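Support request, priority: normal
Reporter: lab tech (M.K.)
Component: structure prediction queue

Hi team, I submitted a job for Peroxiredoxin from Empedobacter brevis NBRC 14943 = ATCC 43319 yesterday, and the status page still shows it as pending. I've pasted the exact input below so you can check whether something in the sequence is tripping the parser. The sequence length should be 165 residues. Please let me know if I need to resubmit or if it's stuck on your end.
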Amino acid sequence: MKHLFKVALSWIKKETGADRSIKSYHRSHHISIEGKPNLDVSAAKVFKGDPNLYNPEDLLLSSLTSCHMMSYLYCCAQNQIEVLSYTDHAEATLVVNPDGSGKITKVNLSPEVVISDSTQIELALSLHRKANELCFIANSCNFPVYHHAKCVIKTIKPNSKTRFY
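Reply from support: The job had stalled in the queue. We restarted it manually and it finished. Here are the results:
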C-alpha cells in the first residue's frame, strides 16, 4: 500500500541591495500543507537563518522523535502496557564538510516512559527496539538512531512512590 504526502514550499527574494553573494540572500520561507497551518521555516542560526523559526534539522529530528513515540505507543498497546506519559529529549549530530555539504550522522533519542505496572518494565524497555523497526521515519534515514530509554513506574495508590529504572 502506498501513501502520498504533499508539501508546497514558497520563497520570494527580498531586496537586500546590490549584494548578490551567497551570504546576502535570506533563508526564510513558508511550507504549506493543505488543511494545516503554514510553517515558517529558515536555516539554522549557525547558517545565517532566523533563530526564531524552525529549520530543516529541527523538523527532521521532530519527525523522527514523533514517529518513534507513535510506533512505541502502538507496540505498548499490542502488549497491554498502559503508558501514562512519554517524554523525549532528542539530539541530532550534524557534520558539515569543508565543501559546504553535510549530513546528520546520528540521532540520540532519550525517551522517558511512565507506566503503571512494575512487572512490565523489561518488556516496556525492549519495545523501543521494535518501535524503531516499525518507525517510518527511522526506516527512511541513512544514519543510526540510538535509544537511551528510561522506564518509570508510577503506582496509583495513596502515599505511593515513583521508582526509576
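The two ends are 39 Å apart (CA to CA). The chain has a mean pLDDT of 89. Let us know if anything else looks off. Ticket resolved.
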